[in-house]
Design a protein that fits this description.
This protein is α/β, with parallel strands linked by helices. It is about 30% helix and about 35% strand. Helix 2 (about 40-50) packs parallel to helix 3 (about 65-70). The longest helix is centred in the middle third of the chain and has 14 residues, at about 105-120.
Length: about 240
């Protein structure tokens, strides 16, 4: 089961944090962006192409309905409206929202909505740039030549503007891919996102050292030192089955 990419849009920081706390408890979710307004969310949708959008309705600037109206049909994620006002429910379903979370909501209600979301999103997204699940290789085009990288030999991947920089042995390669796309492709190959900008091959990790405020330094066998941020720590803990 692949991770579903989610974006949270709400102008209230506490509301965003509440949703984030719920999502951190899920084993099949990755929050790729948090937005405080409608215009910001449209840019995030364009950049990350989420599977699901948790969207407030009453916001300054663009409201939730205006956001949905501006999303191109070929990029439309599953929409879950999150609001404190139940009078918008009928209009929400008119724009084909999947569900409607009324604040404050319980853990049981959120989990029911997430199960509904999971039913609506295919477990696999067609992506010609993803390594075939049995090939174990990633295709990189550089200067008209094609290099095939064994994903087991990749140490880590970092965001680099519009590209992803793949560190493999002593060499690095640039792919015109988002880090989120690569994280989804490599998740079943033993890779884990440890910050907004880094994916790491867990087989290459030799040590974790605490630094500050719940963050850790991740040392790889190649000598690289990376940061495991607090917001991504829970994913590693679920994978290990133990708190750090």
């Amino acid at each position: 089961m692949r991770l579903l990419r989610a974006i949270i849009v709400d102008d209230e920081p506490l509301a965003r944090e509440n949703l984030m706390l719920r999502m951190r408890e899920l084993i099949d979710c990755e929050v790729v962006a948090e937005c405080s307004g409608g215009l910001e969310s449209l840019q995030a949708i364009k950049e990350h192409r989420p599977d699901v959008l948790f969207l407030d309705i009453q916001m300054p600037g663009l409201d939730g309905f205006e956001v949905v109206d501006r999303i191109p049909a070929n990029r439309m994620p599953v929409i879950v409206f999150v609001t404190a006002y139940d009078q918008y429910a009928v209009e929400a379903f008119k724009v084909h929202a999947l569900d409607y979370l009324l604040k404050p909501f319980s853990a049981a209600r959120f989990n029911a909505v997430w199960a509904h979301v999971r039913e609506q999103v295919p477990d696999a997204r067609k992506d010609l740039n993803c390594p075939h699940p049995y090939s174990g290789r990633l295709m990189v085009k550089t200067g008209g030549r094609i290099t095939f990288l064994n994903v087991d030999h990749i140490n880590w991947v970092e965001a680099n503007g519009d590209y992803a920089k793949v560190h493999c042995g002593a060499r690095s390669f640039l792919l015109r891919r988002t880090l989120t796309d690569l994280a989804a492709c490599l998740a079943n190959k033993g890779f884990l996102r440890i910050s907004r900008s880094v994916i790491v091959n867990l087989e290459r990790v030799c040590e974790l050292a605490p630094v500050k405020r719940g963050e850790y330094q991740v040392e790889l066998r190649c000598g690289a030192r990376l940061k495991l941020t607090r917001s991504y720590r829970s994913q590693l803990e679920r994978l290990l089955g133990d708190p750090l």
